[in-house]
Amino acid sequence: MTISSRNLNLLRSSLRLRPIGKRGFASHSSEPITFSVPPEFKTRTPPYAALLTRLDKVREILNRPLTLAEKILYSHVVDPEEAFAGKNGQIRGETYLKLNPDRVAMQDASAQMALLQFMTCGMDSTAVPASIHCDHLIVGHDGAEQDLKASIAVNSEVFDFLRSCALKYGIQFWGPGSGIIHQIVLENFSVPGLMMLGTDSHTPNAGGLGAIAIGVGGADAVDALTGTPWELKAPKILGVKLTGQLNGWSAPKDVITHLAGVLTVRGGTGYIIEYFGEGVETLSCTGMATICNMGAEVGATTSTFPYTDSMKRYLLATRRGPIADAASAVNNLHGYLRADNGAEYDETVEINLSELEPHINGPFTPDLSTPLSQFAEAVQKNSWPSKLSAGLIGSCTNSSYQDMSRVASIVRQAKAKGVKPKVPFFITPGSEQIRATIENDGFTDVFLGAGAKVLANACGPCIGQWARDDVPKGEPNAILTSFNRNFRARNDGNPATMNFLTSPEIVTAMIYSGDMAFNPLKNKLVGADGNEFLLEPPQGDELPPSGFQQGNLAYLPPIDPKPAPSAEIVVSSTSDRLALLEPFEPFEGRELKLNVLMKVKGKCTTDHISAAGAWLKYKGHLENISNNTLIGAMNEETGEVNRAYDLDGTGYGIPELMIKWKAEGRPWAVLAEHNYGEGSAREHAALSPRYLGGRMILCKSFARIHETNLKKQGVLPLTFADENDYDLVKGCATVETLDLLQMLNNGGADTGFITLKVTNRDGDEHVIKTKHTMSKDQVAFFKAGSAINYIGNLRRQTQAAQQT
């Protein structure tokens, strides 16, 4: 990497240099550090000087080489002395960190509840820069223009609410049609060394530009929005060494689809994935974003890459030259944006990019990974549909210029041979900037000429907003997508649709065959002249040769909006879309005594707990959206979906029984198996159970985001110390905590166990040991009834103290 002599001299005049220590990392200096960027870039640039100063303090305490992820994360710790001193270096996987994120991003579906919670805190503005992105509520059906108009009409109340919140609190508002949250963040806000939170599980997409970006629930976002330190157990670090270089049909998507098969959907839980090795330098910035995006599917806290020349090229191409210069300088002079020499990882995986072949993952889970060379055999062996019903590319995972240019090269080859797609082909641009650029460079005409339908710049089918009418519900069929997630019924509401995840290049090649066994590396297509031909490997540009086009400038919000305290936020009392929140009741101060509402069998994602699709319209109305709670879950004792049984044996839909027990004053618990709450950062999957009377979730293991969301809403998350104890507890059993009060009184700092007494309806009794991960702050949330209650109480106490 290089930096211009002019910029290096400017930096030297304002940034005092520190020597590099013998062990390969910068040593502490007591001399002050100063650094600045032009005013219009200030809110989009990490406070590098302050971060380097804080990192010096961390180094003094830990005295060891640090990984890249540790550098960024630990330099955002509020108080390094409190976080790290006296821990004997036992940080990763052990110590809770209190962090000050630089930025928050919220998508429209989750922003509603986040802002409804933020409004209860009584603040005039957000404590950090924030943005709202209208992308989840736009249904794909007829094409961009028609779909956008229809969705704005249907969702105007919600969009107006979000716009008014943005105006009042000084938040950037990216309206419907502007693009998908993660693509806009990459184009505008993600920068090397940034730490940000996003109310979407695929927020780690920003790691492709060297950030630590973490998906969270709305209550976690409120921590950052109010300036309250955000808490995270220090993740372990999984190092993924990349060697070689991608070639032929292989693409960045294949790195993560392959890795998902290695790690499984919970293999990354509790880890940050940090990529390193000579292969990193061969990847484009947007390719690295694709890899980080889908890291969410292995349960990782986030993923990130060291600073590369391709990151600098992308920053320059997206009109952020001063930030590129700053990042280059800070990395060259201080090594801030790369791992220290000698830094150690908790686990290491190596991938040779030169040998990596395309992969296809699915159906129904993103970690069922099959190399393309073995996929035809897998289709036959598993009796998957032999014919493809649709191909979809785009989404936040794969809608970059490079993706679209490589796809266009395949479509052009097919056109030259007179071949047309055999199945419907849908394309979702990631942002208005991408849409305008691919139109300017002729790709859109290429796609339309092949009969493709270009959808709005939004999530669309990826999040379940697909008004599909070509396949009856219940009919088995296969789709290929370049999306990131493929749970049952997620895309079109049809539980029989099998979504296979792969690169946009493989999706595009296979739509010309329509055969699920087709392998473009070796199988030929038949041209209009009757002759067979083999598709050439795709080619494309990393960045647009003539530059990115901004498109419709009306979508661009002010760079640094100021709050307008007089702005009115209207929530109608008769609305079925939005409702103000009432605080949950605080903890009663006694041991819990609950009934088991049901035992969940098998995979239970946040899609099962709080379905998306048509339910997205109720994201701002807790009572209404709670009517979908756990409707996708399977009852372990009966094999039925959305069926639970009352104490007298009467059967109900799951939310109906929750509502009944809540009215009777009967608090309840749910038992589940592994990785409960996998998938989206959907805090309604915690809010709704709490709203309907749930007080405990007991399972074999949790997905990270969901476990945190439960804690934020005052639900006690426990895991079995012995997984076999799951079999001892029956539906409707009475469950009593024996030492919960002891744990709470100790501020969570006890043995890490809670003992339960279980009494089944037949009188069979068991005492079982369970594990908790409650920190001191999380205990305070539980006692207050929720994290928002706790923050509100603190704000009121502060205001009262200031008035006296």
UniProtKB/TrEMBL annotation:
It comes from the Eukaryota. It is found in: Mitochondrion. Its EC number is 4.2.1.-. Gene3D superfamilies: Aconitase, Domain 2 (3.40.1060.10), Aconitase, domain 3 (3.30.499.10), Aconitase, domain 4 (3.20.19.10). Residues 70-514 form the Aconitase/3-isopropylmalate dehydratase large subunit alpha/beta/alpha domain. It holds the Pfam family Aconitase_C. Residues 595-722 form the Aconitase A/isopropylmalate dehydratase small subunit swivel domain. Keywords: 4Fe-4S, Iron, Iron-sulfur, Lyase, Metal-binding, Mitochondrion, Transit peptide. Binds 1 [4Fe-4S] cluster per subunit. InterPro entries: Acnase/IPM_dHydase_lsu_aba_1/3 (IPR015931), Acoase/IPM_deHydtase_lsu_aba (IPR001030), Aconitase/3IPM_dehydase_swvl (IPR015928), Aconitase/IPM_isomerase (IPR050926), Aconitase_4Fe-4S_BS (IPR018136), Aconitase_4Fe-4S_dom (IPR036008), Aconitase_dom2 (IPR015932), Aconitase_mito-like (IPR006248). GO terms for biological process: tricarboxylic acid cycle. GO terms for cellular component: cytosol; mitochondrion. Belongs to the aconitase/IPM isomerase family. This is Aconitate hydratase, mitochondrial.
